[in-house]
Amino acid sequence: MKKLLIWLPLALFVLVFVLVVNGLIQPSDRIVRSAMVGKPLPTLQLPAIVAGKPGIDTAAWPKGKPRLLNVFASWCIPCVAEAPQLLKLKQAGAQIDAIAVRDTAAEVQAFLARNGDPYARIGDDAAMRAQLSLGSSGVPETFVIDSRGVIVDQHIGDIRAEDVPKLLAALERAK
After folding, report:
1. Which of 40, 119, 123, 174 pairs as cysteine with 56 (C-beta 3.0–4.6 A)?
2. What are phi and psi of 38, to 5 degrees?
């Protein structure tokens, strides 16, 4: 029995080593998906952050047409990277609304001037309450809202060129 106890620390070390190596080789999925997918869009009333462009009021949104809801920030580097893809989506006929998270009017205006403006509406979410009510864990994220006001899909991270056809197909399915 004493001989067995002598090998116990080595066995524990090997076990911990194997668990660490396994975690490094096969890391767990760290993407946080929204629990709101498949549920109605929460009521959002966000003031406009850019002059001349309405804010977000989901109660007043017209039903019958699917749309994208993009959560972004002017200080977000991936948001700059996805800007050309959002413009392509708009050119393809997508209705895109946005929520600006922890931002200022001047910074958002400068961001739009540099990167283009694909948005029909932009709401100011300074306290991140709307972002959290959507189940969004960061920026950028884009939600597909169907014609009845239900969140049917979520795109986490920046939209890349290969994602544009997928989002257009999701909008088509959401009619």
Report:
1. 123
2. 95, 0
Query: Which residue, among 151, 159, 168, has the nearest Cα to 69 in the 3D structure?
Result: 151
- From residue 153, how far is each of 116, 145, 168 by CA, in Å? 24, 7, 12
Helical H segments across 26-104, by residue range: 77-91
Count of CB atoms within 10 A of residue 25's CB?
A: 7
Q: What stretches of the chain show up as alpha helix (H) in DSSP?
A: 2-25, 77-91, 105-115, 129-134, 164-173
CB distance 34 to 134 below 8 Å: yes
Q: What is the pLDDT of residues 69-126, one digit of tens each?
A: 999 999 999 999 999 999 999 999 999 999 999 999 999 999 999 999 999 999 999 9
C-alpha dihedral (129, 79, 173, 64), degrees to nearest 10: 50
Question: Do 150 and 41 contact (CB within 8 A), yes or no?
Answer: yes
Cβ-proximal residues to 108 (8 Å cutoff; 6+ apart), any chain = 49, 50, 74, 100, 122
Residue type, 36: M
